[in-house]
Amino acid sequence: MAIKRVMAKAMPVYLVEQVTSEHFFEHLAVETEARAFLLECLRCLQSQGVMRLVMPDAGTYLRAYSGPWEVLAEMRPLARMADGWRDNRLGWIYQTKMQFINAIFRQRAEHKYAYDA
């Protein structure tokens, strides 16, 4: 895993002004990898440093679940097909909204945890 490689080459304490992580944090196991990652970021950040974590907002998807397909289709985006809704990013076709939610949250078992804003 990338976090182990990064931590193996530990940076000096308080070296960086900003840490940015985009679509990475949800791939970490909460109790082990996520905690270690956050501690390492804090160790490397300057005292007035900024940490920015960007990840999918699970709450937004769950709120949209109870509405029409078109709301979910606009968020992802999805294309209407004869046999369901096609996810161009993953190449999957969903017949139910629950299939879609599971695909977003699990993403081929790559996502370990879902977060909301």
> Which segments are poorly predicted (pLDDT under 50) over 5 or more consecutive residues?
none
Rounded to an integer, what's the Rg over CA atoms?
18 Å
Helix content: 40-55%
Number of domains: 2
The ordered string of helix (H) and strand (E) elements is HEHEHHEEEH
Quick synopsis:
By secondary structure, the chain is of the alpha+beta class.
Structure description:
With 117 residues, the chain is an alpha+beta fold. The strands form two sheets. It has a three-stranded antiparallel β-sheet with strand order 3-4-5, with helices on one face. Strands 1-2 form a two-stranded parallel sheet. It has two domains: 2-54, no CATH class; 58-106, no CATH class. The mean pLDDT is 89. The chain has helices spanning 2-8, 30-44, 58-65, 69-75, 97-106; strands at 16-22, 45-54, 78-81, 84-87, 92-94. Helix content is 40%, strand content 24%.
How is the topology of this model organized?
Blueprint: H1 2-8, E1 16-22, H2 30-44, E2 45-54, H3 58-65, H4 69-75, E3 78-81, E4 84-87, E5 92-94, H5 97-106
Parallel strand pairs: 1-2
Antiparallel strand pairs: 3-4, 4-5
